[in-house]
Amino acid sequence: MPARRCRRVCRGQSLTEFAIVGGLFFFLVFAAIDFGLMMFVNNAASQSAQMGMITLADEGTTPSADTDSVQSIVSAGIGTTGIGTLDEIDVYKTYVCDQQSPSNPSVCTTPTLQPDGTIIVDTNGCTGGVACVNQYSASGTCLNTCPWPASARSNRLASITTMGVTLKYHFDYLGIKWPRQSFTQTRYFRVEPRSP
Q1: Residue of 191, 187, 189, 171 lying closest to 46 (CA atoms)
Q2: DSSP label at residue 142
Q3: Any idea of the CA torsion for 70, 75, 76, 81, to the nearest 10 degrees?
């Protein structure tokens, strides 16, 4: 086809091709950016959970252990990103179960502190038979009655307290309007022993 004739016939072809392919291209670019940011938030939350665990393991029985842990979680990792939002921090008592009930796996028949057992949240070991779970907001405010004070924990070798910390957070997509994604990060550990 002569160049002069193609100029008249092919005039809108590039614009039409760009309209068809451009939308998909920009969707994929923004999806890749959002996915990368979501992975960044997950890694930041993992770092925060690790810092909260270290603080609680070290200060487990001091009166300010939980508030110090919340502060270290917020000041490290997810609290500094600005693109992920920390919704709740749970600090709770756990125990390790060597043998679970065959009829009800959530019931432990022989609770012990063996490192190879299954970790179970203590659902009724606190005062009044309530779960030993302290729930905090990112500002450090207790969301429930905080039934498990640090003074009830033990750092003695004969009866070391095992516990867990769970961060509940979410990520709002920036470039693409997808639904909010909620995640959790959990760490289990024991309070560091201080004396025999």
Answers
A1: 187
A2: B
A3: 120
At what angle are helices 13-59 and 65-75 packed, to 10 degrees? 160
HSE of 158, CA atoms in CB hemisphere, 13 A: 1
Mean pLDDT over 86-92 rounds to: 93
Taking residue 51's Cβ as centre, other Cβ atoms within 10 Å add up to: 21
Separation between Cα atoms, residue 134 and residue 3, nearest integer Å: 77
pLDDT in tens, 157-179: 767 788 889 999 998 887 677 78
Kindly report the CA angle at 68 between 66 and 72, in degrees rounded to 5?
115
Q: Decide: residue 43, CB within 10 A, 0-12 exposed, 13-18 middle, 19+ buried.
A: middle
The three-state secondary structure class of 20 is helix
State the pTM of this model: 0.78
Q: Is the dihedral of CA 150, 155, 158, 160 positive or negative?
A: positive
Tell me which residue of 183, 8, 190 sits closest to 84, measured CA to CA.
183
